[in-house]
Design a protein that fits this description.
The protein is of the alpha+beta class. It contains four helices and four strands; from the N terminus they run αβαβαββα.
Amino acid sequence: MLALKSVASLDARGLTLVFDEVDAGIGGRVAEVVGRKLRAIARHHQVLCVTHLPQIASQADRHLAVRKHVERGRTVTEVRALTPEDRVEEVARMLAGRRSPIPLGSTPGPW
């Protein structure tokens, strides 16, 4: 899919490209290459990428934290922009594979 969108985006300026679960079935060095490719595409287009891999997330200019939970039987999704400090913490959490001992929240937010 990334290869198709990379080629398709060559002639079209101003596109928004969405990559959901772009990290499915990859990891390590391949994920790093995918992250670099996405960063290159983002030079000319808006890219929205959902990923769980730090090799991909670390290539982004901006990060959003997405949290889902159930309230009164309904799934609620919350999204907030991360500060530069929060971005470092979140990528570190992704690398460690577990929650950071320091809570994510150096900026005011609903969580």
